[in-house]
Structure formats: C-alpha cells, structure tokens
Amino acid sequence: MARIFLSYRREDSRGYTGWLSDRLRQHFGAENLFRDVETIGLGVDFVEEIEKAVGSCDALLAVIGQQWLNIKDDDGCRRIDDPDDFVRLEIETALGRKIRVIPILVDNASMPRPTDLPEVLKPLARRNALTVGDQFHRDIDRLIEALEDILSVTSSPPESPPILKASTEPPPSPTASAWNSS
C-alpha cells in the first residue's frame, strides 16, 4: 500500500497537487504515493480504498489552498464541518492513528487557526507546515528530504539486542591462568 497519502480539495489546489504528485512519484515511485484520481481503479469502492490507504500510510500531506477551509457544499455549509467530508475524514483518521500529517500551504494560503477548525481537526493547527511558494522545486526538495526521513524511520525494523552464544570451551581455571602468568 502507498506510504504517502495526498489529501486535497480539487476546487482549491488541483494544479499544485498535480505538480506535487508528479515530483513525489518521480522520486518515490508511483507505488508509494496515493492520490485518488491516479490510484483508485475503475469500479473500486473509493470510500473503502481511501480508508485503507489512510490507515496504512506513513505520512499524509494535507494540501491547503486559499479556499480549503471555506469551500461550501450545495446547501451553503462549509464542507470541513461535515463529518462525512472526505478531506476531513482523511485528516481526522491520520491524526487519530498518529500518522505524520504535514500541511502543505499553496497559493499564498495561511495555516488554519484552531478556532476555524472542527474539534476533531484542531490538532492540525499545531502541525509544522511547509509553504510552497515561488521556489516550487526548492520547497518540494525540502519536503522530499523530510519524507525520506519519515519513510526510513518507519521502514527500519526495530533493533534487536545481540544474540549471545554460549561458549563451547570451558572457562580457564584460575590456577592455570595464575600458573601461566608467573
């Protein structure tokens, strides 16, 4: 399963997410990146696939543009306030499972304040964000470096204590050692 999950709103950051996806796929390989439109096969239950992908990733990148927080549904309510909103569910699941969540601020976006977020997403406001600006490639190089560290830590097996083997030779006798040293 993909180790890096891209969470974004199409109406807000589709272009930036596409460029980001291209760079990450190029560096980490397509098999290590989950982006809904590129990863979910035709006829697959996308809710199940997203839940499975978020649950097994090592890092979730929350791409946040200027409108991310205030995009509304057909009834005029903020989508982020809807408990069934996919972006909210993705981030909520990752935070709940202690998966590294990295906000990626694009298009001059600001980090959401805790007071602007639903209760379950307030921890997002405490995450150190990466601002992607005019130096796109330099900024993404910084992200790639951080992701390499995250992925190497999560893929390293825990260290085992060394296995001590019993010697098949008897220990030297104290008298023999003393006798040989004189």
Structure description:
This protein is of the alpha/beta class. It has one domain (4-157): Toll/interleukin-1 receptor homology (TIR) domain (Rossmann fold, 3-Layer(aba) Sandwich). The protein has 6 helices and 5 strands. The chain has a 5-stranded parallel beta sheet with strand order 2-1-3-4-5, sandwiched between helices. Helix 3 (46-56) runs parallel beside helix 4 (86-96). 29% of the residues are buried. Mean pLDDT is 86; it is low at 160-167 and 173-182. Residues 153-182 are annotated as: Disordered.
Low-pLDDT runs = 160-167, 173-182
Q: Give the full name of the CATH homologous superfamily.
A: Toll/interleukin-1 receptor homology (TIR) domain
What series of H and E elements makes up the topology?
A: EHEHHEHEEHH
CATH topology, anyone?
Answer: Rossmann fold
- Characterize the quaternary organization of these chains: single chain
Strand order of the largest sheet: 2-1-3-4-5
Query: What does the overall shape look like?
Result: globular
**Major sheet summary line:** 5 strands, parallel
C-alpha-based Rg, rounded: 24 Å
Overall pLDDT confidence: 86
Number of helices: 6
Helix percentage range: 40-55%
Number of domains: 1
Tell me, what is the CATH class? Answer: Alpha Beta
Strand content: 5-15%
Organism: Candidatus Entotheonella gemina
Region (Disordered): 153-182
Protein name: TIR domain-containing protein
Domain TIR: 1-147
